[in-house]
Amino acid sequence: MKQFLLILLFSFSFAINAQEIAVLKYNGGGDWYSNPTALPNLIEFTNKNVKTNIKKVPNTVTVGSTDIFNYPIVFLTGHGNVFFSEEEAKNLRNYLISGGFLHISDNYGLDKFIRRELKKVFPELKFQEIPKNHLIYSQTFTFKNGIPKIHEHNKKAPQGFGLFYEGRLICFYDYETDLSDGWEDTIVHNNPKEVREKALKMGSNIIEYAFKH
């Protein structure tokens, strides 16, 4: 009954705030607030090129708050430790199985922590590499070779991982690419224009996919 009510809450909130996204604030000491110019720039790009009408400044929501149900998509990044309490893990699980979407961008150093914590949320699920023919790579913008490489860390190929619940992609995780670095103001990382555009286009695809599915 409680889960049903949460689904109704999410559906109602989505109808009101369908054009808002939020940064996910977590405990553990990791810098959840990294890349502050990234999401505003991505929102501006997506509004212009995909004709969305997303609020220009993203909100911040904590993992354990029911306010998370106000957003069709939440974004998580950082370099360090992530920790979800039992109640936070339960809340995030309810949000995701009720229609929410989580995008995780590894800002280098996040991987071992986020994999551990998501096991609390979905002990029965494993990250799967997203195939190149998945719809997330062919929204308004097409990426025939899958996720693009944006920022170099370990000279590894970029990968896009996902969690699937009952056949639906509920979480997209960009690894060894750092899409959010490419969304930041040009002066921050001095990425070439074509690299930054690839990052923005891929980020726009993720938002578009999350809104549609």
Indicate the overall shape.
Answer: globular
Element string (H = helix, E = strand): HEHEEHEHEEEHHH
Structural class, please? alpha/beta
Largest sheet: 7 strands, mixed
Mean pLDDT: 91
Biggest sheet, spatial arrangement of strands: 2-1-3-4-7-6-5
Share of β-strand residues = 15-25%
Taking pLDDT < 50 over at least 5 consecutive residues as the criterion, the unreliable ranges are 1-17
Helical segment count: 7
Q: What is the radius of gyration computed over CA atoms, rounded to a whole number of angstroms? A: 16 Å
Helix coverage percent: 25-40%
* Intertermini distance: 24 Å
Summarize the structure.
The chain has 213 residues and is of the alpha/beta class.
Textual characterization of the structure:
The chain is α/β, with parallel strands linked by helices and 213 residues long. The chain is built from seven helices and seven strands. It has helices at residues 2-16, 38-50, 86-97, 111-121, 179-183, 186-189, 193-212; strands spanning 21-25, 59-62, 73-78, 102-106, 128-129, 159-165, 168-175. Strands 2-1-3-4-7-6-5 form a seven-stranded mixed beta sheet. The longest helix has 20 residues, at 193-212.
